[in-house]
């Protein structure tokens, strides 16, 4: 008996709490979630007839005391005003949301391409110049142009948008990296074009069975680049991202003494701060670059001559202008030579290939300047053969280096690439012995001249 009474009470409660449509016409109430909202004062009331009626009669006596037709007319008028206001607000908010979203998209593109903040104003000017022509056959052309004018793309706006986007990315990164159970780091210290020492810190971690690789920080080493300086910079970078040092399980470095020194190297100092042993790896891409450099040391006299000639032509303004004019005169596809940079892994192969492609123009230029006798190697068949071979093999090393780079490259993928290249070296050797030169296009071209 008690159970049936309780069940009946629950059913009655459900009926009472449901919004009744007739409340709108009689009391001026509309539904909003589990509450009733008064269109006359925007107050909220519990979905119960007694509460709705009490609110109407207590708070709106000037309406409740009128006749029923007058009540309906006043409530209908209030409903109409509310709907009109809501529609206007939706349109206004919708318009602003779209223009704001457009400005965020523009800021994202500007940031990705490393363009100045004022490029937003240039984009807007370009859009406004193109819009009348692009949308000439559109009925709402004027509205489209007005929407473009309303899009905020000023310098300060783009700056704020980019800062917010960067902050959002940082927040997401913090959440992901702190939810990972283990973290691996990759460090690289190098000197940029301004001769400032820069340290980059990458992290690899797993979030919901997805492996991620993210740039944690790029910091400047203001004075020395010792192991202590690197260790301090790394700890500060990890602290900014609120990363727990206990989660660090491995570190990959470029193998420099400041990184792997037994006493004052970064690895030994960092392990002391972390409090547990860390797996240490030497970057396989650095190893490949060092291997290519040491394996071709017998041909470095070729590179020395090439570098000397390139510097003669490109480092002196007058010679550079004369050589550029010569290239233009012979309708060359190039507009100059490339300078060699020992830091950049791909530089050697690219410099050699450009030198070979412009070899005839280089000879002609040196002859016109009366300096061809200073470089007899350019007429030496054996030296030229070494040059062509060196260029071709460097291109193969460059291809391997590029394949090893990129995201989501595991040790399994890298080892497969190294083994495949090792097998290619045997093929290259047989190709040279048999004089087919299938894989040495520059050497083949030289042999047919």
TrEMBL record:
Entries under InterPro entries matching the protein: RNaseH-like_sf (IPR012337)
Source superkingdom: Eukaryota
PANTHER family to which the protein is assigned, alphabetical: DUF4371 DOMAIN-CONTAINING PROTEIN, EPM2A-INTERACTING PROTEIN 1
Protein name: General transcription factor II-I repeat domain-containing protein 2A
Organism: Araneus ventricosus
Gene that this polypeptide is encoded by: GTF2IRD2_91
